[in-house]
Amino acid sequence: MNCSVESEYLEYDVVIIGGGIAGATVAKKIIKEAKAQPNRKLKIAIVEAGRNTGMSADKYMSHVLAYHKKKAKLPNSPYADNPNAPQPNETDAKQMTGKAEENERISSRSGYLVQRGPLPFLSSYTRALGGTTLHWLGTTPRMLPSDFELKTRYGHGVDWPITYQDLKKYYEEAEHEIIGVSANVADQHYPGVKTKQQREEYFGCNYDYPMESVPQSYLDTYLSKKLHKTEVKFSDPEENFKIKVTSTPAARNSTPRGSYTPVGAVGNSSQGQRCEGNSSCIPICPVQAKYNALKTLNALQRDYGKNQNKNIQVDIITQTVASKIYSENTNCKNKIDYIECKQYRDESSGAYEAVKLKGKVFVLAAHAIENAKLLLASGVANSSDQVGRNLMDHPIILTWGLLKDKIGAYRGPGSTSGIPTFRDGAFRSKHAAFRVEIGNWGWSFPDGAPYSTFDSLLQQSEPAKNSKSLTWGSDLRKKLNEVLPRQFRIAWEFEQIPDQNNRVTIDEKYKDQLGNHRPVISYNVPGYVKAAMKQAREVSRKIHKDLGITKSVYAKDDDQKPKCEPAFAEFYPGTDYTHYAKSKPGYVIYEGKGYAYEGAGHVAGTHRMGFSPEDSVVNHNQQSWDHENLFMVGCGNMPTIGTSNPTLTMTALALQAGENINKYLEGEPLLSLARRCSSEHT
Amino acid sequence: MICQKESIKDLNDLRNHLQFAIGLELATIPIYLTGLYSIVEGQNTVATRIIQTVAIEEMLHMALAANVLNAIGGKPGIEPICGQDPIIRQFPGKLFFLPDLGNLHLRRFSQESVKTFIKIEEPHSPCEAPDQGYASIGEFYKAIICGIKKFATEDVFCEAREKRRNCQITSTEYYGGAGRLFSVTDQASALKAIDEIIAQGEGVDECILKDNASQHVCASENEVSPPLLDGDILADGWQMRTHYARFREIQHSRRYKADQQIGQAPKGAVIPIDWKEVYPMADNPRASDYEGTEVHSAIYAFNQTYTDLLNNLYSAFNGKERHKQEIRNAVTIMWRLKNQAIALMKTPSPIYPGKTVGTPFEYLGKNTV
């Protein structure tokens, strides 16, 4: 008689930690590769720390309603905080003091991230099934070829061990099969991708995106007209630029090309087949015309869920937080053995059951900060001492003003165009490159408008209650209609370079309710970026001038008070309202001038890919140098961040990782890419 | 007993039938949208989805009917034909060719209005021909199928291909519901278009798929139960039910199981419905009722938007130069209509205490400003 003992472990072929876009992509790609062989058996677990709160039409709608009810429309507003899988919020950040211990003490009391400074890390992410794609804007440009060779070309940062050409086919796959990107190749103009030959190298000869470009906003076309003659001059080194307003590739559904079918909402696939212009991409697309990872996960569950009884099975296990990775040394090979997780039923207490997951391959896809934290807590994969280091983001500065004409602010997706002109140039030897994002939602990002505009118009009337200038009722509506449609802002997103001291660490003092570590962050913004802020502010003044914004409310951007009191509240068209208050958490001074940066949510670099086990955590196959059965995915793998929003690149890398993982499972050699020599390592 | 399918006399009569087909599909949309927009936002989510997909599929039917009419050289228009309006200009109103449906009303989401929805989509063909017109929408379309087979010869399509070549609304312009929009270029695609309309409404009837439609017999004679599924499968694997079945699901607050017969009461998952989470709009609102009141301008503005939408759609069906842009502009107007509709659903009626104003859907004419 057989006496079966329930195993201590849940056993899988592949254990993926993290139910966001990177984890979903890896699972989908491994299955796609594995299906090439008939009768191949494969069992995959996707383990998510947060809850599964959006994976049906009704559940998702509960997030939409939560968003409607929240007063502050922050990126995580629709997604409830969960003490067992806490997440950072933009409002957590405090201005830092000069002392790391003091900063630690202050920041550890509010929010999730413990911050040591010298500057605060201002980005958030989401810990729920679907991950941060639940609240992303959905901007999906590719990186530029030069972004992969920053060190060789400009002497900053590092080179990637792979080239743009290595990644190109995965970009295409990400655009067509994972995300669904809307853009027209013919409309895309980037520095270094101009001549016929360059364009063919970059896009391929007959390539186009799966869906037509989302229509540009009225603002975009207005700027195109007003700025078509605008030229900008950089002095060091001397370089001239022409402003080219360019439609931005987006992860939102539009008119399909050829046989492509746009993927609609989870549980209601006829909805969200086109972007409807609901104008709330961040924090939530109510119809799911914007991609989120729930779409990919839902398809995996539908096709390979437990009850399908297929050779290939995918288990999505939520409310299960990976807390420690165990390795073993067998046959001279150092491999990961199992991952211990804490599974909770209810987030009101820290009660949990320990669950051990065994696999042939392990994939960490839990976010750049969470991945690093888990590796550090487990003491694995860190022979390079690079785990947690090189933390990067795109620091953003905003510039805003009131245009002379009404340009229909607050309509359409958050952004439909940008100015890619400054994404590359000789100036990168001196200061950071930057992407220019044109915002369609007035002053919402810099100022909390339209609510703040309403408040200030109302307040403006308060002291004047007894005078003739009351602003109430239809007068107030008229006034709002004069101001809001003229609001205009640009976000300048800078390429941050890797720095060993910008890092995620852990400290036994700081743990969450389940006893897992909270990330302890040290962060700074380098002079390389600050110099670019100065340059960007100059470009913004030139652009403002050509748009007829000739006056400014503040004599200096960081002045406490406007030049004259009424100007601020009166909202004069043709005026620059840019203001970097000294009290902002991201306030910095460069060459005597103040700026305030914001986070972009583009968290990268914490387990970077490199040329050798000494300089990096993973190799060019996204495989740990230390443990052959451990693969890392997510923006943490990126050696440098370039100027593109990183999700598309992360997805392309995850596809490459998925292909490698299948090869590894099959005992085949991994991809051998045309690895080039880095100037650092020759 | 004679079925009416061979009632179309000539090509011109076929074109007239298709004019009325476009108007018939259009007529159902205000009825469904009124039910849809009367539901408090975020409530009755399954019912909302059902009504919304049906309304959007009626828009598909309207475009398919227009494509067929264009393909046989007709010009989709709003003008009366032989003294009869192809569209309903004001509710309550009757549909020419389908007098048995009686007066069609604009009513909020309620058990009563769902009964009307079911009646509209009723597949039953009683074989007792009414004195005039057709017994059901299905019968009406079956007559069109016969008419196409008989009068829409290859020559007809060939001639129209030249003259009306910019008038087809193409597949990329349809989304939001199941089914597919396609260009109609010949008899086969014309029949396919009409089949799609019938299938989504009341299911695929084996009879109409037979080669020789003149041998078609009525459902009641051979006891074929109308189907539950319409043959569309969504990207997420959901098998779409016919409109008739979808509304029966709302009526019974339950889904059908995929293997059930339509005649049975649905036995699948419960659909939670709260009939109280509905704005209490007064039936069949009209702008004229509100003249002199403070809400009149808002009601009039809604009618103006509806009018703009119809004028824009019919103009798109007639293939103006910026044809594709025109149909896309129509989508923008649909959003304006939705926003105005929801506002009117919430606006208290100054003449009916305890009720709200609701959506009038009155067409104001071709050249209104």
What does this structure look like?
The complex is a heterodimer of chains A (682) and B (369). The longest helix of chain A has 20 residues. Chain A contains 15 helices and 21 strands. In chain A, a hairpin with a 2-residue loop joins strand 8 and strand 9. In chain A, the strands form five sheets. In chain A, strands 1, 2, 7, 8, 9, 10 and 21 form a seven-stranded mixed beta sheet that branches. Chain A has a seven-stranded mixed beta sheet with strand order 6-12-13-14-11-18-17, with helices on one face. Chain A is of the alpha/beta class. Chain A is globular, with a radius of gyration of 25 Å. With 369 residues, chain B is an all-alpha fold. Chain B has eleven helices and two strands, in the order ααααααααββααα. Chain B has a two-stranded antiparallel ribbon with strand order 1-2. The N and C termini of chain B lie far apart (50 Å). Classes of the chains: A alpha/beta (682), B mainly alpha (369). The interface between A and B is medium-sized, with 25 and 19 residues.
Secondary structure: elements and pairs:
The complex is a heterodimer of chains A (682) and B (369).
Chain A: E1 9-17, H1 21-34, E2 42-47, H2 57-69, H3 100-109, E3 114-118, H4 150-154, H5 164-179, H6 196-203, H7 218-227, E4 231-234, E5 239-242, E6 246-247, H8 293-304, E7 312-317, E8 320-330, E9 333-343, E10 353-364, H9 368-378, E11 396-402, E12 417-419, E13 434-439, H10 444-447, H11 451-461, H12 473-483, E14 487-494, E15 503-505, E16 520-523, H13 527-546, E17 551-552, H14 565-570, E18 575-576, E19 587-590, E20 593-596, E21 630-632, H15 647-665
Helix pairs in contact in A: 1-8, 1-15, 5-15, 11-12
Chain B: H1 11-38, H2 45-71, H3 111-121, H4 137-151, H5 154-163, H6 187-202, H7 206-209, H8 219-222, E1 229-233, E2 239-241, H9 243-252, H10 296-317, H11 323-346
Antiparallel strand pairs in B: 1-2
